[in-house]
Batch of 2 targets.
Target 1
Amino acid sequence: MSSENHNSSNGRDEEILRAAADWIVRRDLGFASEDEREFNAWLDEDPRHGEAFEGRLRIWKQFDQVKPKAPAVSSEPSAGESKGSVPKGRRVVQFAVWGGIAAAIAIGFFVTQTIQNPGHAALTADHVAMEYERHKLDDESVVELNAGARVSVHYSGKERLIRLHAGEAHFIVMKDSSRPFIVEAGETRIKALGTAFNVNFNAESVEVLVTEGSVWLDSQALVDQEAGEESFVLSAGQRSVVSHEVSEEETVIEDVTAREVEEHTYWQSPNIEFIDQPLSHVVEQMNRYNEVQIVIADSEIATRSVTLSVRPKNIGGFLAMVEAAFDVKAETQSSEEIYLRAQ
C-alpha cells in the first residue's frame, strides 16, 4: 500500500474517532429528536462508526469520574425561554468546556493500553504510527515508534532488515548471529551488535543514539567526507548525527550523559495510571519526571479526584486535560514553574 493511501486511511480513522467523541459529548448534554435521527444516520453510514463510538464511550465512562460540577442554575426559565429548553448561551458555554474533553477522548488521552503487536505482520507494509506504538517482532526484538514514524519490516533467512522511511524509532534487538539486524534510514545503515538504539530520521540528518551495547554505523555520506571513513562503531552512551548534505566537516561521535539520553528518549516513557487520586498526588508524581515543576497555587483544587493514564513527560497533555476537566488555569511563572490556579 502506498504511503499516500496509508495517510488517507489514517486520516479517515482519526476523523471517525473525533466524530465519535463529539457525539458522546452531544449525547451527554441531551439529545433532541433531530439529534437522535442524525446520530443513527451517522451510525448507519459505516460499521466503523459504531466501533469507534463504543471505544470512545468506554474512555468517557472512565473520565466521568472527574467531570467538573455544573454551575447551579435557576429552574425557572428566563424571559423568552420555555421550560425544558437549554438557553443558547448556556449551551455554548457547555460545548466550550466539553469541546476540550472531546478532543482528549478523540486522541485516546485516557487509553491505558500501550499498542502492542505480537508479530511483525502489521509492520511488513509501509506502516505509519499515529501515536506512540510498541511492536514485538517475530524474533522477539522490539520496535518502539514515535508518533509520525514510518517503517517497513523485511525479514529473511539471511538478515532482519527494517527500513525507517521517516521519523523516530527505538530498537531493542535480540541477538542472532546468523541473521544480522539492520536499520536503513535513507543512505545510512545501522547494524546492531546486540544492542538497543534510537534512530531519528528527518529532512536534514540521521541521528543515532546507542542506549545499550553497540552498533556499526555505515553511510554513503561518510564516504563523501574529507576523512574518507565509511563506517564506525558507536557504543552505549554515544551519539552521532549524519547529515544528508555533503560536508567537509567530519561526523562527530559524542558522549552523552544519562540525563541527555533521557531527554532524547522521553517519548518512550510508559504511561502511569491514577485512579481516584487527589490532584496533589498526581502533580507530585508528574514533578518527579520533569525539570519544569507544577505548583498547585490554590489549596481548594489540591483534593480534587483524578482518574487518568498519562505519560509522565507529557506535561502539555496533562495540563490541557486538567484545564478541560476542572475550572483550573495553568500559568507559566518561569522556565522552571507552572502554577495551577482555580478560575
Note: The longest strand covers residues 160-172.
Target 2
Amino acid sequence: MKSMEIFAGPDDSGEASQAASPAVQLDIRSNLCGKDGAEEADWVKRPAPGSVRQVKFRQIVQYFGKKDDGFYVIDSAWIPCKPSLLRPFKTDDFSFMVVDRGSIAVKLDKKIYTLSKNSVLLKRPTGIMQVQRISPDCHFRLFGFSSQFISASGLPKKHLEALSFLSSYSEPDRTLQPGETTRVLSILDLLQHKQALDKKELYYDEAIYHAFCLFALEIAVAYSRNEHDHFSSLTRKEHLAYEFFKQLPLHIQNDRSVSYYANLLHVTPKHLSKTIKEVTGKTSGEIIDEMVVQEAKVLLDDPSLSVSQVADKLNFTDQFSFSKFFKKHTSTPPSVYRTVI
C-alpha cells in the first residue's frame, strides 16, 4: 500500500513506500509505537510539526480505492504508520472512529481524547484532528460520510432529533457498551462489504442507507445515555445554548426568528443572541440559518415536492424569497441544487 501522502505535509515529498503485506504493516506499526509494546519512539510522543493538511472527501475514497457513494469504511490495518500520519489534518466530512482494541490518543481541535476499547469519537467537517499516540495493538474503524449521504438516507425526515449528536455543541466522544460495539462493528462490516463490490447489486442503495440509519440510531442511544452527565456539568450559559440546540430541530419548519426561540426559552432575544455567540462563536441567527439550509436540502431531496412546496413547508412567504435565501447560503439556486445531488 502507498504511504499516506494525502495526510503528508509539504516537506513529506519522498517516494511512497510500499507495504504490500499485513506483516509489513505490523512492522511499520511496531516501529511507530515501540516494539512489543515497549517504550514508544521519541518522535511518536512529540507530534510532528507542520501546518494543517486539508484533505478532501474524494481524496480519501480515491486513495483507498473506494467508490464515491458518499461514505467510506476504513480499517486501521490499512493505514501505514509513519511520521506524516502525526500531522494535523482536516477533512470535509463527518467521520467516526470506533476503537475495538488497544488505545490511541487523538487531539481534536484543542482537546486531547484518549480512546480505548469500546470508545467512539466523532470528527465534524470543521474539526482539526491529529494523532498523538497509538499503541502497537490498536485497532479501529473509520466511518466517514458526507452531509449529502445523511440526507439521502432519509433519516432526517423521520428522526431528525436522532442526529443531534452531529451538532457542534454535543461532546464528540462516548463509550459504547460491549454489545453496542459489536452491533456497530457488524453494521460497518456490512457497509464495508457493500462498498467493496465490483458491481452494485439489487437494492444496493437501499441497503447502505438502511445500514447507515441503524448505525446512527445505535450511536444516538450511546450519546443520549451520557447526555445527563454532560448536562449536569454545564454552566448557565451552556445550559441555555444546550436547550436552544434541542429546540431547533423541533421547530425549524415553523419559525426562523430569534425571538421565537427566545420566547420558548423564556429569555430575551438579546440575551439569547449574546449567550449563543459567547458559547459557540456564532450568532443564534447564523445557527438558525444553517439548520434551515440543512432542512431545505432534505426536503429538496424529495422529488415529490416542488420548490414552491419546499418553500411553503419552511414557512417562506413565497418561492422567490426561499430561492434567494437558499442561494445566499449555498451559492446555488434550489432548482440547480436538485440537478447535482
Note: The first helix runs from residue 22 to 33.
